[in-house]
Fold this sequence. Notes:
The chain is of the alpha+beta class. Among the domains are: 31-46 and 203-282, Elongation Factor Tu (Ef-tu), domain 3; 80-169. It has 5 helices and 12 strands. The chain has helices spanning 2-29, 81-95, 98-123, 129-168, 214-217; strands at residues 34-51, 56-61, 68-69, 74-78, 171-173, 178-183, 190-191, 196-212, 225-232, 235-246, 257-264, 275-282. A 6-stranded antiparallel β-barrel has the order 1-8-11-10-9-12. A 4-stranded antiparallel β-sheet has the order 5-4-2-7, with no helix packed on it. Strand 9 (225-232) and strand 10 form a beta hairpin. Helix 2 runs antiparallel to helix 4 (129-168) and helix 3 (98-123) runs antiparallel to helix 4 (129-168). The longest helix has 40 residues, at 129-168. The relative contact order is 0.21.
Amino acid sequence: MGPDCQCHAPRLRFSARVAVTILLSGLCGLRAAEPVPVAGVSKPFKEETLSSTVPGTVQRLLVKEGDHVEKGQLLIELDSKQEELEVARRKLLWESRAEVDSAAARVETFKADLDSTRKVFEATTSVSKEELLKKELEYKLAVAEFKRLEMVEEREKIEYDMASEQLQRRSIRAPDAGTVTKKLVEEGENCEPRQPLLKLVDISRCYFVANMDPKLAGQLKLGQPVEVEVQTGAEGVVCKGSVYFISPVVDGASGLQEIKILFENADGRVRPGVAGTMKVAVSEHE
């Protein structure tokens, strides 16, 4: 045992010294996080081109370029006189319940007459079987007519809803809050379905879009806080945002990966389209 212990002790001490040396050298090789600037460009949160789903003539254009609009606000009205008349006609047909009410009254009358006849038939012999069957047939026919008129009323309600929908399509409303950046039609002009009429952007929030080296992009995570500096005239504005999108693919031509940073811009200080930089803190080995 004595000789064995003297032989192994130096090996253990040597191994410990090697391990400590490797660990310290690894720690010394790490440099503190250094911010790496990445160039990019700001873009609006939403860009929408508005069009009509039906053909028509622009009767009223209610906005101009630069106007801020709210979600659901009426922007353009197409001529709709024919559609308005059709809605009014369908509404009258649907709301007219004279026939349905009359049929319901006949059902009640024939039901009472049938019940009375059946009681007499069962109690006496003054009513024949044929008379009772006739009353039953009259009642069944009255019920069938009432149900038919109810179905007609339901169909008229559907046709009224369809006419109302056609009328609503003559009005073009803002799908979201934003600013009108381009007016592509004037009052009195004809338009076709899917023809661009207005352009709308939402700059209350913006994206900062950058293309970076995949190794650098690999150190980012969704939701990670990031500061973006965007040029606004002679000065730069620092905006706090977070990583919103990391492209799952690398562009084959450039070898870069797209990253999107989402930041608030409620005061409108940042004009989408201007360049800027973001700084990514990374740790590297020497």
